[in-house]
């Protein structure tokens, strides 16, 4: 029987662990506790699950056991477990274990995950902006777990205006991420719930650096470039250089669409609610295409239950 509270604490500890050395092959799970793998001696094939680097020298040995490899939407790591693993534990590991490890995988830019709750017809809010709540209670707790595993959580100005969010981890154990507010013209942060101990960073185009904002928080990060793609790529390189190596984007549609257009998103995760709005705001708006072959396709997808609904996660 999996102790999910202990497992969650172990994932939080893994996120904060020291930098890996060259001998590290990945991590192994034993009795809800996680430790590093340096050799085959660290794996008891009767007990564990393992999260391993794609180029691990232990790959071949795992293929010769009764373990199975599971589909996860991450390019650099792979998840293995005994065939006897139960569905709840497996879904928990798929959703959260890669995120606990992502900061330890060397990259030149921040890892970007989009998480949204949408209706069956792809809407995230009514025409007047009401979205409370499309997702269920389980998805709310899930979103807070995602926040606890990333370095920063990003939203646009309209999400601040309509949702009055806190962007913290009040529903789960863990540390609050840096709050990233992406807006060139936002004039105040009055609708962003004040949390003194949480860092808030206002992110905007350098062209708007002289535009004032009515807030005690004057911590800005300015990005620049010749076009939208250059600017967004510059933004995430700057965030990475500040130690913000993993970012959760929660909305809104304009922010998510910009990130998708500029191809900086690594993983997309959509909680699908069993409702139809018929009108309102779609979660993404992309350039028009003529053929299905031109569409953006999610790879390495998996579905999991989220309370009484379903959620899809995939690699872009």
Which helices and strands appear, and what pairs or packs with what?
Elements: H1 4-16, E1 26-30, E2 33-37, E3 49-53, H2 59-63, E4 67-70, E5 77-82, H3 87-101, E6 111-118, E7 123-125, H4 137-149, E8 152-156, H5 157-163, E9 178-182, E10 200-205, E11 220-223, H6 228-241, E12 246-251, H7 253-261, E13 267-272, E14 281-282, E15 299-306, E16 309-315
Parallel strand pairs: 6-12, 6-13, 8-9, 8-12, 9-10, 10-11
Antiparallel strand pairs: 1-2, 1-3, 3-5, 4-5, 7-14, 13-16, 15-16
Helix pairs in contact: 1-3
Form type = globular
- Lateral strand order in the biggest sheet: 11-10-9-8-12-6-13-16-15
The helix count comes to: 7
| Uncertain segments | none
CATH superfamily descriptor of the largest domain: Dihydrofolate Reductase, subunit A
> Main beta sheet, described?
9 strands, mixed
Strand content: 25-35%
Radius of gyration: 20 Å
Number of E-state strands = 16
What gap, in angstroms, lies between the N and C termini? 34 Å
CATH topology of the largest domain: Dihydrofolate Reductase, subunit A
Which CATH class of the largest domain applies here?
A: Alpha Beta
Helix content: 10-25%
- SSE succession: HEEEHEEHEEHEHEEEHEHEEEE
CATH architecture label of the largest domain: 3-Layer(aba) Sandwich
Q: Output mean pLDDT.
A: 88
Which secondary-structure class do the elements indicate? alpha/beta
Number of domains: 2
């Amino acid at each position: 029987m999996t102790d999910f509270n202990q497992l969650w604490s172990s994932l939080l500890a893994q996120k904060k662990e020291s930098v890996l050395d060259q001998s590290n092959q990945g991590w192994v799970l034993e009795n809800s506790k996680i430790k590093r793998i340096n050799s085959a001696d660290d794996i008891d094939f009767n007990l564990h699950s393992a999260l391993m680097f794609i180029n691990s020298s232990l790959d071949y040995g795992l293929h010769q056991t009764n373990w199975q490899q599971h589909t996860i939407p991450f390019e650099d790591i792979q998840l293995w477990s005994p065939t006897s693993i139960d569905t709840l534990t497996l879904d928990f590991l798929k959703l959260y274990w890669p995120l606990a490890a992502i900061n330890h995988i060397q990259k030149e830019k921040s890892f970007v995950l989009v998480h949204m709750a949408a209706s069956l017809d792809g809407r995230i809010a009514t025409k007047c902006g009401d979205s409370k709540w499309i997702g269920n209670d389980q998805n709310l707790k899930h979103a807070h777990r995602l926040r606890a595993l990333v370095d920063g959580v990003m939203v646009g100005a309209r999400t601040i205006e309509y949702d009055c969010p806190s962007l913290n981890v009040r529903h789960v154990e863990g540390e609050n991420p840096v709050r990233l507010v992406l807006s060139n013209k936002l004039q105040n942060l009055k609708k962003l719930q004040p949390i003194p101990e949480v860092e808030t960073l206002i992110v905007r185009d350098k062209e708007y650096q002289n535009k004032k904002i009515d807030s005690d928080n004057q911590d800005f990060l300015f990005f620049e470039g010749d076009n939208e793609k250059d600017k967004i790529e510059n933004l995430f390189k700057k965030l990475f250089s500040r130690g913000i190596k993993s970012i959760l984007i929660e909305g809104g549609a304009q922010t998510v669409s910009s990130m998708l257009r500029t191809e900086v998103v690594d993983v997309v995760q959509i909680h699908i609610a069993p409702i139809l709005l018929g009108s309102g705001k779609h979660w993404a708006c992309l350039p028009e295409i003529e053929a299905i072959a031109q569409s953006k396709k999610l790879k390495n997808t998996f579905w999991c239950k989220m309370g009484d609904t379903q959620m899809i996660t995939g690699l872009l």
